[in-house]
């Protein structure tokens, strides 16, 4: 059994609103993600600092144990609250997440603590699997205020999955596409993306 956590930040300064609640085809980003993840994982929960915003989704919501520590704090909170050994972590601003890439990453979880895709932009740590073996190394980094997600990687077994080496379909690249600005959002809102 395996769980998934949606890392829901707060208000985005560049977008001007909470990205989780931007809409595509009549549904919010986070609702689209939940629909897909429900088909693949036993339990889905949300890591958020403003739980009341997400209560309508009827999923477990966990507040950051280390508030203000960014995504690394969200990963830590998710791991200590997850009942599964590996947990898939997903940022709330990736609405096109695709099952093929998740399945491909999941195949490597038996031997590794972190299974993370790498695109031409670099590592994608908020579309990746993390095991409970990461808890203590992450805690050490958080306590020292090293907030880069990869800061704890030297202390665990990491598998980097190069997307270029896969038969890159558009769905793989769309899967890790995140949206940061209002222009990017307007650009995709009217396109026919495979959601």
From TrEMBL:
Domain MobA-like NTP transferase: residue ranges: 4-148
Record InterPro entries: MobA-like_NTP_Trfase, Molybde_CF_guanTrfase, Nucleotide-diphossugar_trans
Keyword Cytoplasm belongs to the record: yes
A molecular function GO annotation: GTP binding
Pfam families for this protein: NTP_transf_3
Keyword Magnesium: yes
Keywords tagged on the record: Cytoplasm, GTP-binding, Magnesium, Metal-binding, Molybdenum cofactor biosynthesis, Nucleotide-binding, Transferase
One of the GO BP terms on file: Mo-molybdopterin cofactor biosynthetic process
HAMAP family from the UniProt entry: MobA
Name under which the protein is recorded: MobA-like NTP transferase domain-containing protein
Organism of origin: marine sediment metagenome
């Amino acid at each position: 059994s395996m769980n998934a956590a949606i890392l829901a930040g707060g208000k985005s300064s560049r977008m001007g609103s909470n990205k989780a609640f931007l809409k595509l085809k009549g549904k919010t980003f986070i609702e689209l993600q939940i629909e897909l993840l429900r088909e693949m994982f036993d339990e889905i929960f949300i890591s958020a600092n403003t739980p009341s915003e997400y209560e309508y989704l009827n999923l477990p919501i966990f507040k950051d144990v280390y508030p203000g520590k960014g995504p690394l704090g969200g990963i830590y909170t998710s791991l200590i609250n997850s009942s599964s050994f590996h947990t898939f972590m997903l940022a709330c601003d990736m609405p096109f997440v695709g099952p093929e890439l998740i399945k491909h990453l999941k195949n490597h979880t038996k031997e590794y603590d972190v299974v993370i895709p790498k695109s031409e932009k670099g590592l994608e740590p908020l579309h990746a699997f993390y095991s409970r073996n990461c808890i203590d190394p992450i805690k050490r980094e958080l306590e020292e205020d090293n907030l880069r997600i990869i800061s704890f990687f030297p202390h665990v077994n990491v598998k980097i999955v190069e997307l270029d080496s896969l038969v890159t379909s558009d769905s793989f690249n769309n899967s890790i596409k995140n949206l940061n600005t209002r222009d990017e959002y307007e650009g995709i809102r009217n396109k026919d993306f495979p959601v």
